[in-house]
Design brief:
The chain is mainly beta. It has one domain (about 5-75). It is built from 1 helix and 7 strands.
Length: about 90
């Protein structure tokens, strides 16, 4: 199973300079490690954005993580310093 790092359900994190945030609401609900990549997700808007490389902890965990991420559209996050999307 892929490593999932959920944030508490009562607390959504706002965009920061490293991870960014959802382009619709500026929040992030957690990070999902899928294969060699890590993705931030916004559950409310069903979007995800890539935040960097990751070495898989379990050889088959990426399959579960990719299945979990499949309904999420990939977007470009916003960052708090300028509110603009970055490539």
């Amino acid at each position: 199973m892929g490593q999932v790092v959920p944030f508490p359900s009562h607390q959504r994190h706002r965009a920061d300079r490293y991870f960014g945030g959802c382009p619709y609401c500026g929040s992030m609900d957690g990070i999902v490690d899928a294969g060699l990549l890590s993705w931030c997700v916004c559950q409310r808007h069903q979007v995800r954005w890539r935040v960097g490389p990751k070495t898989p902890d379990q050889p088959n965990g990426w399959k579960y993580a990719l299945k979990r991420l499949s309904p999420f559209r990939e977007v470009t996050p916003i960052f708090p310093d300028d509110g603009q999307k970055r490539s």
